[in-house]
Amino acid sequence: MSPLTRLPVLMASTSYPANEGDWKGLFILRLTEALARRDDIRLQIWSPPGPLPENVESLIDKTQAAWLGRLMQEGGIAHLLRNRPIRGLRAAAKFLLNLHEVFKRNADASIFHINWLQCALALPGNDRPVVLTALGSDMQMLSIPGVRLWLMHALRGHPTTICPNAKWMVAPLAKALGRVANIRYVPFGVDERWLNIDRVITNSPVQRWLVVSRLTKDKLGPLFTWGESLFSGSTRELHLFGPMQEEVPIPEYVFYHGPITPDALAEHWFPQAHGLVTLSQHPEGRPQVMLEAMAAGLPIVATRLPAHEDLLTHQVTGWLCDDQASFTSGIEALSVAELNRKIGAQAAEWVAANVGTWSDCAQRYIDVYRTLQPRLGGPE
After folding, report:
1. Angle, to 10 degrees, between the axis of helix 324-334 and the axis of helix 223-231?
2. Do 174 and 207 belong to one domain?
3. Same domain for 30 and 126?
4. SS3 310
5. Minimum mean pLDDT among 20-24, 164-168, 197-201, 274-278: which range?
6. How many angstroms from the chain centroid is the CA of residue 176?
7. Which structural domain range is residue 244 located in?
């Protein structure tokens, strides 16, 4: 398709990485890169500042870029709302006002592609079609009094498809917003490099188990309590990676490395690791690091949350646990190299067959765009 007939798409996001090593919103960068490789759309984006492909136009001005950059350094709107509610509310109001003006100024876009339900609250009163990516934190927001009605009002008049990135969100979204939008499951992809990792597992005397997570009490869950007997003074090591977002005391038996880049995980840690652990009690959506670990053939031991059950089939592509006893059973079972390799391989096969790469994800979104675009009478 020639540049003159490319479908104009305006993407909006509350989060975007400042650089390749930044963990915040890295999946938005990967989606942007995949969409930018298409020759059938023309992509503009309004988001916090960060690296953009050459053929993607940023719609933020210098003042907005500076403000959004500071906002990301503070952890983003959701983090502020949890920890500094008044500051968070002011930031959310300013964000929505700025985004509302962007939507109004760019009303000629054929599609508004909005990441996070909260961004849809800024929609103007026109008839632009909306593709709305729903993530795990959005489900919490829907339970706030008045938010569902506000969203229904904002989406009124906009042909809308809401795209949760996990199947478990389809039913609650249909119940909450099915009157004003179609609900269509669109999973994110993974970088091809995760699928190409050559992981070698032997009956080594030292097994390295990884936890990759933001450090909060809810995200870590009972990890330190349940893990002490398994990883303290044994041939198993527990390595913890991620930014400290709450003051969480870390036991001496845990190897804490701080934040880590995807490059370091892919090149060093995943190939030699025995497995990934997540005992999160946080309302997760679909953790990208779990998808990447599965793609790399890394078995996962995880708490039985809807988000984890959406990804893992117990004792087939991972290990789900309800309590300390089942967690212990999972670690001990997967300490055996043969079962470890089997479940890791089955996890990688599942990701390749059901998720695919970011290019596959971009094609899924293009398919959604095309269901909405003919209503505009624009280019086919």
Report:
1. 40
2. no
3. yes
4. helix
5. 20-24
6. 21
7. 192-354
Please tell me which residue, 80 or 27, carries the higher pLDDT value.
27
Helices (H), the chain: 26-36, 62-73, 76-83, 85-105, 136-141, 147-155, 170-177, 192-195, 217-220, 223-231, 262-264, 270-272, 288-295, 306-311, 324-334, 337-354, 358-372
Question: What are the structure tokens assigned to 301, written together?
Answer: 């031991």
User: Residue type for 51, please?
Assistant: P
Q: How far apart are CA 289 and CA 211, in angstroms?
A: 10
Do 153 and 14 share a structural domain? yes
Give the CATH number for residue 110.
3.40.50.2000
CB 53 within 8 A of CB 36: yes
Which tokens sit at 286?
């679909």
The count of C-alpha atoms lying within 13 angstroms of the C-alpha of 242, restricted to the half-sphere facing its C-beta, is 20
Same domain, 172 and 91: yes
Instruction: Let me know whether 198 and 232 are in one domain.
Output: yes
Which residue in 72, 93, 102 sits closest to 11, CA to CA?
102
Q: How far apart are the first and last CA of the chain?
A: 10
- When pLDDT is averaged across residues 184-204 and rounded to a whole number, the result is 90
**CB atoms near residue 61 (< 10 Å):** 10
User: Is 228 in the same domain as 350?
Assistant: yes
More confident residue, 151 or 201: 151
Which residues contact residue 177 at a Cβ distance below 8 angstroms, ignoring those fewer than 6 apart?
148, 151, 152, 155, 162, 183
SS3 content of the chain, % helix, strand, coil (to 5): 45, 15, 35
Name the token pair of 168.
């478990």
Tokens standing for residue 347: 């996890």
Tens digits of residue pLDDT in 250-275? 999 999 999 999 999 999 999 999 99
What's the one-letter identity of residue 365?
Answer: Y
Number of structural domains in the chain: 2
Q: Report the alpha-carbon distance of residue 323 to residue 341 in Å, rounded.
A: 24
CB 81 within 8 A of CB 89: yes
Instruction: Report residue 26: phi and psi, to 5°.
Output: -60, -30
Reference 227, options 278, 291, 272; nearest CA is 278
